[in-house]
Amino acid sequence: LGTIATHAINPALLPGINYNAARDFAPVILLGSISNVLLVGANQPYKTVQDVVAAAKANPDTIAFGSAGQGTSQHLSGEVFKQLTGAHLTHVPYRGSAPAIQDLIGGQIPSSFETALVALPYVKSGKVRALAVTSAKRTEVMPDVPTMQEAGVAGFDVSSWQGIYAPANTPPAVVDRLNKAIAAIIAKPEVDAKMKGLGLAYTPNTPAEFNAFQTGEQAKWAKIIADGKLRPQ
Hints:
- This protein is an alpha/beta fold.
- It contains 8 helices and 7 strands.
- It has helices at 4-13, 49-58, 73-85, 97-106, 116-124, 172-186, 189-197, 207-227, and strands at 2-3, 25-41, 63-67, 89-93, 111-115, 128-133, 159-167.
- Helix 1 (4-13) runs parallel beside helix 8 (207-227).
- The longest helix has 21 residues, at 207-227.
- The model has no long low-confidence stretch (mean pLDDT 96).
């Protein structure tokens, strides 16, 4: 099982990583993607994305955003937000989503990027507010929450994703067989329902299509990390 972190972000962020994401694996199937969401604490004055942007520009580096950790898709969602809006936010990495959410609820940080599924119960309870999801399309998990693009941040499209890989040099016939077998499992109504319940948006794909997707993601995150001058912490 590989993710956006293991196969797109970390190869660019961690130069000493001991594997080559592009060469050491044979992509089998993209299982799905899930959107992140920009959250603010219920006690914060920000009602829209543009409220956050305006405040951050008026008072550079005084507004923090939390994440599940350095190099996570939540962290990089914040970096993309900074690059596309020009808003100067300060990243506060946590050791996982739970402490970040708790500090957001408690008012220790004003904002955070989190996966939509993890954020959902806190949004429903009114403990935090969801301002926008990071994917290009609205997510079934939070259908009433606008996308970043709808909220005025053009070009914003970030989703966490997961996929199945085989070892490099696995015969193509074996990779194709695995792809078809896993796709058949995903098509089962009970599995489809479970994946949707987890917020995973799945589209049928071939190994070649998954490989092309991964290649695009690797190039995308290499540029974002280079442009942001991001370094491991």
